[in-house]
Amino acid sequence: MWYYNEPKSGRIASGTYKDLPCIGEGLVSGNIRCERLSTIGSFRALTAQNPDSDEPVTMECRRVYISGLYEVPVTITSNALFYERSEFYGDLFASGELVIRKSFRGEGKLQAKRIAITGPADFRGPLLGSSLKVKGALSIGDIACQEMNTCGRLTAGKIVGKDISIRFIERCHCATVQGARVHIARNDRSLFGKFLFSSWDEEYSIMTVSGDIRGDYVDLSHVQASTVIGNDVTIGPGCMIDCVRYRDHIYIDDGALVSRFEPFTGTPDNPKR
């Protein structure tokens, strides 16, 4: 059974609500279940643990709309929207879509079926989902998703997926990339970066990968990496690769620098000489 609640600020008791709007400062003193949560301002847990147990304070909501600071772990059974200038600290799980617009930062863990990010986002922690679409600047920890499509500036840890497409602007970096299809290229033809990033210099725009790039099909341009391993590998212009290992096919552009390349047998996950 859902109970209605009026817009409020201040201390919010644990319980079950239908609509829970908060304007100003909201302090949660226990577990909350609600149909819809909308906040403008600050929304956080009064204490890290429930007063009657050792379990952390959590929220379970169907829909969430957040503008401002949010510091309570939340499970969302539908969709979540962060807009304007938002901060999130904690763990978020959404079974539907997570949309982040304009400025966003925080720390914890983000997981949703579909994730769409527009604008600058700086989050310390992993991101997990079935699909990820980014247009803007994203700085985050490890990424694990089936489909990934980014356009803009990217800084990340390990990237694991099935179909990975990274179109970058300015200098970008990640630790490793592993997928079935991996496409990484500079977004030369778009005016998007020239307007979004005033310091954008096309000549110095390159994606650096400190570890390996692995995939069944790998297509790279303007990428600097230590090792590339794939069944079908294309090394395009502007690349600087220490070692390329291929199984079926390899193409190296005249404008690329590859120190050495060698065939392998097996799979990209377990290559053998």
Structural overview:
With 273 residues, this protein is mainly beta. It folds into 2 domains: 1-125, no CATH class; 145-273, no CATH class. It has 1 helix and 19 strands. It has one helix at residues 192-196; strands at 8-12, 15-28, 32-45, 59-71, 74-82, 86-101, 104-118, 121-124, 127-139, 143-155, 158-168, 172-174, 176-186, 207-220, 223-235, 240-252, 257-263, 265-267, 270-272. The strands form 2 sheets. The protein has a 17-stranded parallel β-sheet that branches. A two-stranded antiparallel ribbon has the order 18-19. Strand 13 (176-186), helix 1 and strand 14 (207-220) form a beta-alpha-beta unit. The radius of gyration is 22 Å and the shape is elongated.
Task: Describe the structure in brief.
With 273 residues, the protein is mainly β. The chain has one helix at residues 192-196, and strands at 8-12, 15-28, 32-45, 59-71, 74-82, 86-101, 104-118, 121-124, 127-139, 143-155, 158-168, 172-174, 176-186, 207-220, 223-235, 240-252, 257-263, 265-267, 270-272.
